[in-house]
4-hydroxy-tetrahydrodipicolinate synthase (Cinchona calisaya), 368 residues
Amino acid sequence: MSATYQQLPAALKSFGDSSSSFALPPPSFYKRRNARWRSPEAAVVPNFHLPMRSFEVKNRTFAEDIKSLRLITAIKTPYLPDGRFDLEAYDSLVHMQVENGVEGVIVGGTTGEGQLMSWDEHIMLIGHTVNCFGGSIKVIGNTGSNSTREAIHATEQGFAVGMHAALHINPYYGKTSLEGMISHFDSVLPMGPTIIYNVPSRTGQDIPPSVIYAAAESPNLAGVKECVGNDRVEQYTSKGIVVWSGNDDQCHDSRWDHDATGVISVTSNLVPGLMRELMFAGKNPSLNSKLMPLIEWLFKEPNPIGLNTALAQLGVVRPVCRLPYVPLRLAKRVEFVNIVKAIGRQHFVGERDVQALDDDDFILVGRY
């Protein structure tokens, strides 16, 4: 019989023995045996919101790791005919970005149609991207919302599944006051590296410099994706705030004339190698001019309509659109074929010949 059993009180030894009555040991027994036991300390800092992410060094990404990125792609989300994510096509797209020197991807942004995703889909895609590519490229999850409660919850989940940084927009449609914007960003900045995204054409409200200066007091502000223009870009860069151009047609001048760190790009979905050259190889007005017809074509209709059409015609995604997005008209699809030939098919993603798809080739999905 084991020594441990011998040390038990008689009452515990007889437990389960029908011939004896069972009585719990006195409270002094537990106190005596547990005298050296101490409750574990909770992994929180008093009065400080700690998100669901590890403080282990191996899992930590800091704002400084994000600030140096020059080329970040707002990656497209492809679909299967029933409207679900086409993860095989998605992985191929991200792999082509990595191969061509892109340093980061925005997952579930406007270009990736995060606005058409459930939060379950959104967080799953962030986690999938981290799992498959997190060692090769920085994964920035769009976890912003016009609801502060949703932004907090989604950002906690995004960091929990391993994203390196969060992208946050100001509350759109309903709008708020300047003080409300500051409080909104203050609620999410403590969680980890954050890029603030200013695009008044979509939100209906500019994020003025006073709000960015307040956010810049946090060490977690990695920088700003700025779509207002290069004067605003220089206003921030002159004060040491990192800026990425949010306008592909202005990014060359932003980078080389106004000290932007780089660009968060839509066009790099299609020509990642050329966009890397534009951001890394010094001033190149000739290349910038060469790309301008493509950039202008992409934004004739609200993004991501042009990109969806282009990637389908390049054969790298299925021609499936979640409504309300529909493909560009046939004349514009033919125009894209000519643009590809002018720039050179070898510079575009995919290997199939570019083709002008017919209307009947596209699948429009309303319920998924």
The chain is about 40% helix and 10% strand. The radius of gyration is 27 Å.
